[in-house]
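Notes to self, 7-carboxy-7-deazaguanine synthase:
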Amino acid sequence: MRKINEIFYSLQGEGYHTGTPAVFVRFSGCNLKCSFCDTQHEEGTLMTDDEIIAEVSKYPAATVILTGGEPSLWIDDALVDRLHEAGKYVCIETNGTRPLPASIDWVTCSPKQGARLAITRMDEVKVVYEGQDISIYERLSAEHFFLQPCSCYNTALTVDCVMRHPKWRLSLQTHKLIDIR
Ligand code: SF4
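result:
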């Protein structure tokens, strides 16, 4: 059984896959407590893999995004295999502090200040900008680097930082801008 906060269908609002229709599987709970955390993820219902696959399969999109909270607390190879068997492209949004199944198709790592990374393979790095030194993340092996304002209140500072560090691209929470989930 895996503790699920919600499963819903929307567009990916952030990062490389912005605009892509996707089924979001939000797992419950996190091992960190970030001050800017904007998700209500603590509540949850225990679901079997059959129930998860049945719910995900209600929607036409191929992309499934495992998110949270911190999804690595609840996932393993067996779940990723089941999603692949259902024809899904499996993405994860993780804080990177815990190991992941190797078979995940796309890893979005959002490293948090002071939290040690436990993964080395990642496709994109997405950092919420709080004025911190972002050069420490440039050593990570990702292909894409996104800097995102903190709940849109420091957008101008984030734009300025990206222009000074052109390895990075701006990521906006576009789902909030157009008022979708
Ligand atoms: S790692 Fe993500 S889900 Fe966990 S507390 Fe921080 S922002 Fe929230």
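- The two ends are 26 Å apart (CA to CA).
- The beta strands are 2-11, 21-27, 45-47, 63-67, 89-94, 106-109, 124-128, 144-148, 169-170.
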